[in-house]
Every structure is written in structure tokens, then in C-alpha cells.
Design brief:
alpha+beta, six-stranded antiparallel β-sheet, 27 helices, 17 strands
Length: about 600
């Protein structure tokens, strides 16, 4: 795992000292080695976290035989041996690194090399003969890549901080107010936009080229899309669960590829517990890491974790997260994120990643299981509203009565389009009228959710539940949950791998109707039926808690001064009277506004540091 950066100047050589500064901003992503290539107006750099091929031969930038093609690469390619064997031409191999398979694969397949890769990746390839830079990102967007272009410079990097560290670029950056408006609803900024108008994220499953001679971006292509998969209905339940069993087993096994120790983030939930089963099947001496909230027993699920640990005799690390840890960890990870992100789980995840780093460099995680197999209650709400649209007038009337906040939000959902509801539900989002009060302006939902509407238009099935899952895989995963996992782990110099986000597994499950994912009101029906083969029903069918972050308590106690300071920081974005109202309601226990306050805090904190 690594950090990558590239800088191309139109009319002058890249300054060595400037480029070294840009590379050094990514040192947490790769503390083991640094590599740089400077040739006139082109510079490529990498910081390396050594995992496969620990020798100097795995160092980057890496080149083909004659030095005409160079790559900087972040990620892991699990099938690199297969890619290597599939190449038709003879190549000279100088390492056992997965990186070299991309270099030689590009020589044969060009931009289409991504279609042959199984893994998580973001890369930049410089083709000296064509004078072209090729960028590529993996199918789910597990690994990030940003890019910037003006009349003098083209730059790409794993993280925004590397681009911003270039003063020639920084002074030209323009704050993206429309992206902040989207953030209020989503809790993140959806690709390709960023917090800056003139910096972009390359979308998941996408490649893009930069033509240096003509100084323009060309050939942007989306090369994979779950929304194009047709539903297959000729399998029975046993056959389906058997295949999920085989695919998940294979997914975990390939993600054990490493020349350094591996571990597991074990939450006690179904997803990470299934991964524990398959890891124990294929390897030994597994270290597991679990967050325990010392000051909040109600959020502690360590007793369920112990059942898994005892069953497979796993090495158990209980990482107790106290109020003191909240204060010391919160702003450190907020500073590292680069862009606002409204997810309090980054705090304990960063904490546990730092604990894991003491023993190992690679951890597996259960992330993605909910989006692939249907684990969120909002999927039920989407189906209910779509099937009862005739109740819209009644819903509008009932929403004005005294009902619980959750029911109120469900009723309000009838006024929104499917793709809008998908991101209003389940994330603590503001509703339209609330956001208009916060921003003191009228908002167009079509503009705010243009990314969601575009994704929905590209979904070709008629299955409502699969459409909800697809939207989350297109937007929520790459721009929120996978960002959370990547930044928190990379800030601790740890690589996270996600077996549930395996290409073959996802393609198979998206070829099944939604009735297989939520059945009889049971979410994640297939993974729960699979888990019955290994765990007790009491363990499987207990109420879902998620990561259980006690943000409500933190705002009132451990982070009270921090939140109060930044929530009351005036700026041009928010209506301060409305912010004060939300804050008073929360502190007086009249309304739980924790998720809304976190969104406001994230923006205000970012503006105080970068605005």
C-alpha cells in the first residue's frame, strides 16, 4: 500500500525540492520507502508501505524493460500471477511485485489493463513514447486518486494534501460552495467533485488519460458497472448459499496474500464474524482487534466478539476506547481527512488502526457486506414507499402531526424521488426544508442529487432493492465508507482489505433478485443463512448495532468544548441562528441532532483550517 503523486509542468522543469515536499505529505501512506522520478517537466513519486516483495526490487516508480513506461501504484493486485501468465509477449521481470504486472500489462492492453486486474488500486502510468499519463481506479473505489489541471500544471495524487502542498496550485484553488451544499445532504462530497472547484476525484471503475502534447484530458471511460448485470432466477436457496460460501471463501483466501502479518477488525457482527471463519480455515495465528467503549457499556459488543474468538482460538486484542482517547484522537484524524466527512466512526477506527499497527500492517474488515447483501433498514423503507405511493397525500398530512423523528422522516420521504431518498434515509441527513433554513436559500433537489439521478439512470434492472444497493455502491461506498476506511488506516500506516467487495462475489449477488437479500423482513438474509452453518441463531439474529459510536454523549461531554467552539464559528455558509437552535435542542435533550451537528462541525472545522 502506498501514496502516489505525479506532477507535469507545461513549460518548465519540475523543481526537485517542491516535488519532494509534495511526496512527503503522503509519508503516512508509505513510511517504508520513498521513490521519485524526475525527467524535465514530468515527475512521479511514491511513498511505500511494503507488503508484497519487501526487497528494493519492489520500489517505485517502476519501469518496463526500456524505461519508456513508468508507473506509480497504490493497492494490491490479487491475480497478478494470472495477469503475468496471460501476457502474450515476452517481458523481462525484475521483481515478484504485483506492480510490475500492471506495467507489462499496459504494454499489451493499454488503458484496458484495468479490465484484467482483480484487486484494489489507483495508479498513474507515464507512457514516454505517447507522452500520455493514464490514471486508473479500482471497481469499488477502495483506493483514492485526485487530479488537477490548469494552463500550466497537471497533477494527480492519492490524497488532496499532496496537491494542495504545491503553492503554485494552492493559490489557484477555488472553494466549491455547491459541493458543501451537497455535503449537508450526503455527509460527504460525491465524486467527481471535491471541496475545491478545480480539483476532482476520479470515479470508481474509471480510467482517464492526460495528453501532454495537446494539454487536455481524454478518453475518460467507466469500465465496470454492477447496474448492467441481468437477474438470474434458476437457483434454489441451498445452491445460492453454497455459491456465496465458495465465493466468500475464495475472496478471503486471496486477500491473505502478504509478506507481512495480517489481522482482522472484528466487530462481533455477522460480516466480520464470517470473515473470521474463513481466515481461520486458511491461516493460523490470527490477531483480532475490537473497539470497546470503556465509558459507554451500552455500545460495547465485546461479549459477542469473544464467542467468535473462542470458537476459532484467535488472538484477541480488546482496544478500550475511553473519553480521554476521544479528545486526543478526534482532531488528529479530522486534520488528516483533507475534506469534510460526517462520520464519527473515523475516530474509533483510527484508534484501533493505531493499536493494530503495533503488531501488523494488513487487516481485513467486514465493510461492504451491508451494501452488497442488503443490511440497512432504509432499503425496507425505499421498498415500502415505492409500493405505497398512493398514500402520498396521507403521508404529507401525517408528517405534520406529532410523531417520532424516524416516522416523520419516513413520511417526509414520499415527497422525494427514489435516488434522493436513498441518501436522505439512514445517514442523519437534513431534509430539504431543514437544509434551506441552514443555508438560508432555496435549493434544487435535482441539482443537489444530480450524481444520484445520473447513477439511477444507468441502472438497467427493474428490481427496487437492487437499485437501492446499486446507488450505495456507486456513491456511498467509494465516497464515504471506503474513504473512512482508507484514510483512518493509512493515517496509521495500515492497509485494510474488504472481502465482501470482491468482483465475482458482487456480480453474483447483483444477479439475484432483491427478495434474496431481504426476505420475510430479515435484512442480509443470505449472509445470515450462511452464518447459521457456523454460529448459533441467538448470535446471528440479535438486534443490529452497527459500529455503535456514542457521538451524542461525546458532543455533550468529552467533545463539548470542541463542538461548541466550532459550531458557533460564524461564516458565510450557515444561518447561525438555526445552528444555535439545533445545538440548544441537542444539549437540552429535546431533540437528538447529533448527525446534523456533526455535518455543520465538519464544514466549520475545515473552513477554519483551509478556508
Amino acid at each position: 500500500m502506498c501514496g502516489i503523486v505525479g506532477l507535469i509542468q507545461k513549460q518548465k522543469k519540475v523543481e526537485k525540492g517542491l516535488f519532494e515536499t509534495m511526496v512527503s505529505t503522503l509519508s503516512r501512506r508509505g513510511p517504508d520507502q520513498q521513490g521519485k522520478y524526475l525527467a524535465g517537466n514530468v515527475a512521479l513519486g511514491q511513498t511505500r508501505l511494503s507488503i508484497v516483495d519487501l526487497s528494493e526490487n519492489g520500489k517505485q516508480p517502476m519501469f518496463n524493460e526500456d524505461g519508456s513506461i513508468a508507473i506509480v501504484f497504490n493497492g494490491e493486485i490479487y491475480n497478478f500471477q494470472k495477469v503475468k501468465k496471460g501476457l502474450k509477449r515476452k517481458h523481462v521481470w525484475n521483481s515478484v511485485s504485483d506492480t510490475e504486472s500492471i506495467v507489462h500489462g499496459y504494454e499489451e492492453y493499454g488503458q484496458n489493463i484495468v479490465k484484467h486486474l482483480d484487486g484494489m488500486f489507483a495508479f498513474g502510468i507515464y507512457d514516454q513514447y505517447k507522452n500520455i499519463i493514464t490514471l486508473g481506479r479500482d471497481r469499488f473505489g477502495k483506493k483514492p486518486i485526485y487530479y488537477y489541471l490548469d494552463e500550466n500544471s497537471f497533477c494527480f495524487a492519492s490524497e488532496l494534501k499532496a496537491i494542495v502542498s504545491n503553492p503554485n496550485i494552492k493559490r489557484k484553488l477555488i472553494l466549491n460552495y455547491s459541493a458543501i451544499e451537497k455535503f449537508v445532504f450526503y455527509g460527504y462530497i460525491p465524486s467527481p467533485e471535491t471541496i475545491y472547484k478545480n480539483v476532482y476525484k476520479l470515479e470508481a471503475a474509471t480510467t482517464l488519460q492526460f495528453d501532454i502534447d495537446n494539454w487536455k484530458l481524454i478518453n475518460k471511460k467507466r469500465y465496470w458497472d454492477l447496474g448492467q448485470i441481468a437477474i438470474v432466477d434458476d437457483l434454489n436457496e441451498v445452491e445460492i448459499i453454497d455459491k456465496v460460501d465458495r465465493l466468500l471463501d475464495s475472496s478471503v483466501r486471496k486477500r491473505l496474500m502478504s509478506d507481512v502479518p495480517l489481522g482482522l477488525f472484528l466487530s462481533g457482527g455477522i460480516d466480520s464474524s464470517l470473515i473470521a471463519h474463513y481466515m481461520a480455515k486458511h491461516t493460523s495465528n490470527i490477531c483480532t482487534y475490537t473497539v470497546s467503549y470503556k465509558d459507554t457499556p451500552s455500545a460495547d459488543e465485546s461479549k459477542y466478539v469473544k464467542q467468535v474468538v473462542n470458537k476459532y482460538d484467535l488472538d484477541y486484542h480488546l482496544c478500550e476506547f475511553s473519553g480521554k482517547d476521544v479528545q486526543s484522537t478526534f482532531l488528529e484524524i479530522m486534520d488528516y481527512l483533507d475534506e469534510p466527512l460526517a462520520d464519527a466512526a473515523v475516530v474509533p477506527l483510527f484508534f484501533v488502526a493505531k493499536q493494530a499497527k503495533k503488531d501488523m500492517t494488513v487487516v481485513l474488515s467486514g465493510d461492504g457486506g451491508d451494501e452488497i447483501f442488503g443490511g440497512y433498514e432504509k432499503y425496507k423503507a425505499q421498498y415500502l414507499i415505492e409500493k405505497t405511493k398512493f398514500l402520498k397525500p396521507l403521508a404529507s398530512l401525517l408528517s405534520k402531526t406529532s410523531v417520532s423523528p424516524n416516522i416523520k422522516k419516513l413520511l417526509a420521504g414520499y415527497q422525494y424521488e427514489f435516488s434522493e431518498r436513498q441518501f436522505l434515509f439512514g445517514s442523519g441527513s437534513f431534509l430539504r426544508e431543514e437544509a434551506e433554513q441552514l443555508l438560508s436559500k432555496e435549493l434544487s433537489m435535482m441539482e443537489i442529487f444530480s450524481d444520484a439521478h445520473l447513477a439511477e439512470s444507468q441502472f438497467k434492472q427493474d428490481d427496487l432493492l437492487n437499485k437501492a444497493l446499486y446507488l450505495d455502491c456507486r456513491l456511498q461506498l467509494p465516497d464515504w465508507y471506503l474513504v473512512k476506511g482508507d484514510r483512518t488506516c493509512m493515517a496509521a500506516s495500515v492497509e485494510m482489505r474488504n472481502p465482501f467487495l470482491d468482483t465475482k462475489l458482487a456480480e453474483f449477488v447483483f444477479g439475484l433478485g432483491g427478495n434474496w437479500k431481504i426476505k420475510g423482513g430479515i435484512t442480509k438474509y443470505l449472509t445470515k443463512k450462511l452464518a447459521e452453518r457456523f454460529y448459533s441463531r441467538d448470535f446471528i439474529y440479535r438486534p443490529k448495532k452497527g459500529f455503535g459510536v456514542p457521538l451524542d454523549k461525546w458532543i455533550k461531554k468529552e467533545l463539548k468544548e470542541t463542538f461548541s467552539h466550532y459550531l458557533h464559528q460564524k461564516n458565510d455558509m450557515f444561518n447561525q441562528k438555526y445552528v444555535n437552535k439545533l445545538y440548544r435542542e441537542h444539549m437540552d435533550n429535546t431533540c437528538n441532532n447529533q448527525f446534523k451537528l456533526l455535518r455543520i462541525f465538519a464544514v466549520n472545522y475545515w473552513l477554519s483550517k483551509h478556508g
